């Protein structure tokens, strides 16, 4: 029995003719990789479109339904699990973090898409019926390229992958709103990037505002306008998320987790976690690891 949540690299999985990408029908994939139904993390990007099935899934401890017409996207490092009530079908794509880097001049291209922002509620999208057939056609074209007796054209596969992102993005009002003001969109993206790098050291909005060369009031207004939460809540949520990810590792004591997250002591970390989650870290650990069969 493993005490740590497994982290899977794309090299652990059968790839799609070319290094760095896997494209498959989801039903087949789910049966071939049943160990992925329990909580796990990826070192690669991951997306699934469901055409059949029911149940639920968790992305970074947020629960979502599984149903036809739903597509979800995940970035490296997120925690994920499935719990199917009826047999699922659809399509899955896994691709490495550098798969598109040699094809695109913009290394941060994926950050233009709201569903790659690492926020679970932005990553799960119910596609309109009229869009679903377009998405299915793109998946089928990618599968056809992979099953061809000729050598797969990797540039064509990359082009189809980007087209899929664009077609989904057109249905995503949140992306359109974020892009309506490119300056504010860039500020918000930079703020999130700074949080990702500094959440364990910097906890105050004014510290990030200083790095962004704006006022704390401007930063807070930006977060409220585009995300509906304060700048402080965005920082706090990232700290709590990392605490949850660390708590799944049963080899780490709560005191060690508090230290990793730069809390002054274990008791302060416990109070902080309970204030915003309603339960103690140990209670969260027990509930989560029991659900995942540890």
From TrEMBL:
InterPro entries associated with the record: AraC-bd, Homeodomain-like_sf, HTH-like, HTH_AraC, RmlC-like_jellyroll, Tscrpt_reg_AraC-type_HTH
Protein name as it appears in the record: Helix-turn-helix domain-containing protein
Domain HTH araC/xylS-type positions: 189-287
Protein's UniProt keywords contain Repressor: no
Highest rank taxon of the organism: Bacteria
Keywords: DNA-binding, Transcription, Transcription regulation
Keyword Transcription: yes
């Amino acid at each position: 029995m493993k005490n740590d949540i497994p982290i899977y690299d794309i090299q652990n999985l059968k790839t799609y003719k070319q290094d760095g990408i896997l494209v498959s029908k989801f039903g087949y994939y789910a049966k071939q990789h049943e160990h992925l139904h329990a909580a796990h993390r990826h070192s690669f990007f991951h997306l699934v479109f469901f055409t059949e099935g029911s149940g639920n899934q968790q992305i970074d401890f947020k629960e979502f339904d599984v149903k036809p017409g739903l597509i979800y996207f995940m970035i490296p490092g997120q925690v994920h699990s499935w719990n199917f009530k009826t047999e699922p079908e659809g399509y899955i794509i896994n691709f490495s973090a550098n798969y598109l880097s040699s094809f695109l001049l913009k290394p941060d291209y994926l950050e233009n898409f709201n569903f790659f922002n690492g926020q679970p509620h932005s990553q799960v999208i119910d596609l309109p019926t009229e869009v679903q057939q377009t998405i299915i056609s793109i998946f089928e074209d990618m599968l056809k390229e992979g099953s061809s007796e000729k050598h797969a054209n990797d540039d064509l596969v990359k082009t189809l992958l980007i087209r899929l992102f664009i077609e989904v993005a057109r249905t995503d009002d949140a992306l359109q709103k974020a892009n309506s003001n490119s300056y504010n969109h860039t500020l918000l993206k930079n703020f999130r990037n700074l949080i990702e790098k500094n959440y364990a050291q910097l906890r105050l909005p004014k510290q990030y505002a200083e790095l962004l060369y704006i006022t704390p009031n401007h930063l807070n207004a930006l977060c409220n306008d585009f995300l509906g939460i304060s700048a402080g809540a965005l920082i706090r949520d990232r700290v709590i998320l990392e605490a949850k990810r660390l708590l799944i590792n049963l080899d780490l004591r709560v005191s060690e987790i508090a230290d990793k997250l730069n809390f002054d002591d274990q008791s302060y970390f416990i109070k902080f976690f309970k204030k915003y989650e309603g339960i103690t870290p140990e209670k969260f650990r027990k509930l989560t690891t029991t659900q995942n069969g540890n």
